Amino acid sequence: MTIAPIAERHADSFRLCLDAVAREKKFLALIAAPEPEQVRAFVRQNVELDSVQFVALAGDRVIGWADIFTAWQPALAHTGNLGIGVLPEYRGQGIGGALLRACLEKARRKGITRVELEARVDNAHAIRLYENTGFVREGIKRNGMLFDGVYYDTVLMSYLQP
Question: Is residue 53 one of the residues assigned to a domain?
Answer without folding.
Answer: yes
